[in-house]
């Protein structure tokens, strides 16, 4: 009686043979354990049969693991170009600047994710408050400087007290006690009319 024909089942990673099983039809097939590769999951290019039915070759398929990128924006708005996922094969990611009303963007921490990195990442934006502009309010009497006051918009100030015998004082333009921007007020002297 002729010997039953033997078949070979080969397991490969690229061109490298991991292992082979040789046996007759019906021999049980157990796929070898594939050594892990950082940043990838492994699978076979087709479902491994449970028994030998003929010659067969199975090749490992390496799929890059998708990692998440979480942005801590502290109330800011992220740039739409900033990715939310990456893999070990992604090119180095340098982040675009986010925006936040009333603040200047300082930096991301970390500033980038290098190609070849793995793991879920959290990227934190740091901000600096845009300083409020200071305004100057100037009080003059003719060409003479009486006083200057400075403050941010909304600061409450008082006009200097000036007196000149026989005159009433008004400010031109009309004095506003709330700073809204740079301003100059000039003293306007009106003679008091006396009745005799």
Topology diagram in text:
Layout (H helix, E strand, L loop, with lengths): L5 E8 L2 E9 L15 E5 L11 E9 L2 E6 L12 E2 L6 E2 L8 E7 L2 E2 L7 E9 L4 E8 L2 E9 L14 E6 L10 E9 L5
Parallel strand pairs: 1-4, 5-10, 11-14
Antiparallel strand pairs: 1-2, 3-4, 5-6, 7-9, 8-10, 11-12, 13-14
Explain what this protein looks like in three dimensions.
This protein is an all-beta fold. It has no helices and 14 strands. The chain has strands at 6-13, 16-24, 40-44, 56-64, 67-72, 85-86, 93-94, 103-109, 112-113, 121-129, 134-141, 144-152, 167-172, 183-191. The strands form 4 sheets. The protein has a 4-stranded mixed beta sheet, with no helix packed on it. Strands 6-5-10-8 form a 4-stranded mixed beta sheet, with no helix packed on it. Strand 1 and strand 2 (16-24) form a beta hairpin. The chain is rod-shaped and about 150 Å long. The chain starts with 5 loop residues before the first strand and ends in a 5-residue tail after the last strand. The mean pLDDT is 95.
